[in-house]
Amino acid sequence: MLRRILVCLLLLVSTPLLADKQQAAIATAHPLATQAGFEILNQGGNAFDAAVAVSAALAVVEPAGSGLGGGGFWLLHQAEDGYQIMIDGRETAPGAAHRNMYLDENGDFQTTRSLDGPLAAGIPGLPAALDLLSHHYGKLPLSTSLAPAIRYARTGFEVSQRYQRLAEFRLNILQSYAESNAIFLQNGQVPEIGFTLKQPDLADTLQAIADKGRAGFYQGAIAQKLVESVRKNGGIWTLADLQQYEVKQRTPVTGEYQGFKISSAALPSSGGIVLLTILNQLAQFDLSGADTTQQRHWIIEAMRRAYRDRSRYLGDADFVTIPSHLTRPGYGRWLSDSIDDFHASRSTNSENLETEGENTTHFSIIDQHGNRVAATLSINYPFGSGFVADGTGVLLNDEMDDFSAQPGTANVYGLIGNEANAIAPHKRPLSSMSPTFVENDERLMITGTPGGSRIISMVLLSVLDFIAGKSAEDIVASPRFHHQYLPDEVQIENKGFSEAERQALSERGHKIKLLNRQYGDMQVIIVDKNDHQLSAASDPRGEGLALVR
Fold first, then answer.
1. How many Å apart are CA 452 and CA 380, to the nearest integer?
2. Would the pLDDT of 339 be above 70?
3. Long-range contacts for 324-328 (Cβ within 8 Å, ≥24 apart)?
4. Residue 43: is it exposed, middle or buried by C-beta count within 10 angstroms (0-12/13-18/19+)?
5. Cis before 63 (ω within 30)
6. Most-buried pick from 23, 188, 256, 297 (CB within 10 A)?
């Protein structure tokens, strides 16, 4: 792992600085996905074609994080006219879903029902989103952009240590289904390092999409196999659910902080709203003039209040009315008035949960013309539901757990939800995925990360670091901390924070939870608009690759 990180850093350091506008940058969570993106750019594709290629490649080589059986958000910027849009390929609840579907006969929430197996799966949005991206924003045929992923699925990729760790984490559920066992395990166990994992059925499904667009997945033979396999194993999908799935194009959430424009994900992602709620509070404090402990205290308290609002108000805006004041600067000022400079507030306590926070994936792209994409994709928990539909190679998500299955009850990430995020047919569950652009007249950052409920706080820290002038490499490597209102604790990575730093926060009344590992897999691109220099970095916690060419 150390050798791979050093190689990537050497590539970054040795990359020539941009002398004109003819260079591009791609940062993804897997080297093969980065290569797929450049393969498409080299064939005359734009950033949006490359986004199709990268999304599909990650579905093959990073199955623990995303896939055709999941969904995501793609934040787009067109250079020629400055047009920005968010492609919402989030999963939807099946038509037969209902408010209490994960409660037992006593009315208690049964966590495994919304995590394991096909009953936990929403209707996938990724295939439809790739079709829309290609046909509405790309330059190349969809079949061309999907070619690298199809090749990877047929020829296979080598299993890494990261794959091993995530497969071990979900070993029991992968062993529970014949198709999952056969594809993702080696003789029923976690594969050895270097094992070549091939997915011929997935290659055939990708080829069907390449040939027929979204109809290759949501209609015909693939759709029939998906529904039959899901229903045979306890799920509730119908052919009508697949055929009626609709990608949405949404206006990004925008705001300003310290003279920088922030563009981020809109509902059903909570990312943009929560991010701006935090930044509007922090605008009331002199972060640059404060010491590190004071900065962290203010940030934690702002996180606490924004995540509280997330749990109270946010859900799919197509189904519920969202308060319009949440991203207004005046509301941020009002929230900040309740922050004591030296003493932590209190949240009502709840379950103390620690999850992997590594499922989901993110990539950032800018092409030689200035078109750009920040995309965060997911199947929710590592390896999603653990269920592969027979004969399709499609690993299904367990995004239904992102709904509030019972008011006041935490999901697998410890997030508390209420009626705004209750289960309803065809509704999209609330998400934390936060693909984001940050820019002023001189500099631009494209950022995002996986990490469950910690995504927003990680993106926040990257925004603050960028505005403070840190490099892409420093931003992705910076130590991380997180507060999400409930549980009432500050989660801190096990590296990067001294005992004295932790003690200083404890003395202000913060309950510190030192995690047993680091988290996140951030992918960042920075553009200096004055001399058109590009830099890109992939999180050293992961196995990704960032390149400028």
1. 8
2. yes
3. 326/273, 326/276, 326/277, 327/253, 327/255, 327/272, 327/273, 327/276, 327/277, 327/280, 328/280
4. middle
5. no
6. 297
Three-state DSSP class for 544?
A: coil
- Contact 360/377 with Cβ under 8 angstroms? yes
Q: Please say if 360 is a catalytic residue.
A: yes
| Integer CA distances (angstroms), 113 to 130, 231, 320, 405, in order | 29, 15, 25, 10
Q: What is the pLDDT of residue 419?
A: 87
Backbone angles phi, psi at 196, to 5 degrees: -90, 115
Q: What is the residue-wise DSSP string for 412-428?
A: TT--B--GGGB--TTPP
Closest to 222 measured CA to CA, from 253, 201, 199, 191: 201
∠ CA 443-445-447, rounded to 5°? 175
- pLDDT per residue over 96-106, tens digit each? 999 999 999 99
Q: How far apart are CA 50 and CA 44, in angstroms?
A: 10
Q: Which two tokens stand for residue 35?
A: 């290569």
Tokens 């059925």 locate to 201
Confirm if 17 and 533 have CB atoms less than 8 A apart.
Answer: yes
138 contacts: CB under 8 Å, gap ≥ 6: 45, 46, 48, 49, 52, 145
Query: Under 8 Å CB-to-CB from 375, ≥6 apart: which residues?
Result: 51, 54, 55, 72, 73, 74, 75, 362, 363, 364, 365, 435, 448
H helices of 448-507, where?
455-467, 472-477, 499-506
User: How confident is the model at residue 361, as a pLDDT?
Assistant: 98
Give percent of the chain with pLDDT exceeding 70. 93
250: part of which helix (H) or strand (E)?
strand 248-250
Cα 84 to Cα 101: distance, rounded to the nearest angstrom:
37
Residue 14 CA, chain-centre distance (Å), reads 29
Q: Are 485 and 463 in contact (CB under 8 A)?
A: no
The reply to whether omega before 268 is within 30° of 0 (cis) is yes
Beta bridge partners of 263: 254, 437
Query: In Å, what is the CA distance from 340 to each residue of 58, 218, 344?
Result: 44, 53, 7
Residue type, 517: R
Q: Is the pTM of this model over 0.85?
A: yes
| CA 372 from centroid of its chain's CA atoms | 17
Q: Which residue in 360, 361, 376, 436 is the catalytic one? A: 360
